[in-house]
Amino acid sequence: MPTSAPPSNRFERRRAETRHALVRAARQILAETGDTSASIQAIAERADVGFGSFYNHFESKTELFDAAVVDALEEFGQTFDERLRGVDDPAELVAAGFRLSARMAESHPELMQVLRHRGLGYVHSDRGLAPRALRDLEAGVDSGRFSLVDPTVALSALGGTLLSLVELRFARPDLDGDEAAANLAEMVLRMLGVPPDDAREVARRPLPDLDQRGRSG
Asked: Transmembrane ranges (predicted)?
């Protein structure tokens, strides 16, 4: 999961560990079913914390599950930051977003199941991949790499397409995920105004191996 500065004393460390356990439990529930009807008692038991500890960190289940989705989004975004550091072509960054997401259905299944079940409501979130994608879209428009379009509207199209790809990866595991993602990335780049031959080449550039990273948290 995303990391932050370590708590400065034992009490704060224990508090942070309890919160982490609750968020982790909520992420597991979202990944398994997407159902948020589990009782607070059931969540606390899964997290292996006391029932009363819940209200030391969250006012409601809604707040907890929102925190769990945000946590997943931030892990998602941090993964892209780590893997695509040094890439400065907006078109390549957009294409890599689709292709890495398809691979993460296998390398980070819990994370991607959370996005599969709850991602649509966070397409325009200020956390995770959305602000990074908006930044790349704006850079592409400013540089002339992409056609003059409203980046926020383009983000809606990209977010919906990305979530459809994630759904496809889980619904049809027999498909060649890499090829499907590359084809979709090529279509998206063409939609953004990248010339066909260029879009095809960019959508098939070498990608880093996510399996080398392993899971965190």
From this structure: none
Instruction: Find the helix packing angle between 109-118 and 10-32, rounded to 10°.
Output: 70
Give yes or no for a contact between 83 and 190, defined as CB atoms under 8 angstroms apart: no
> Structure tokens of 217?
């948290």
Domains and CATH numbers, the chain: 10-66 (1.10.10.60), 68-204 (1.10.357.10)
Beta carbons of 175 and 96 less than 8 angstroms apart: no
Quote the CA–CA distance of 211 and 217 in Å, as a whole number: 15
pTM of the complete model beyond 0.70: yes
Amino acid at 7: P
Rounded to the nearest 5 percent, the helix, strand and coil shares of the chain are 70, 0, 30
pLDDT digits (tens, 9 = 90+) for 72-130: 988 888 888 888 888 899 999 999 999 998 888 888 999 899 988 888 888 888 888 88
Q: String of b and e for 61-80 (b: at least 16 CB within 10 Å)?
A: beebbbbbbbbbbbbbbbbb
Report d(CA 156, CA 99) in Å as an integer: 18
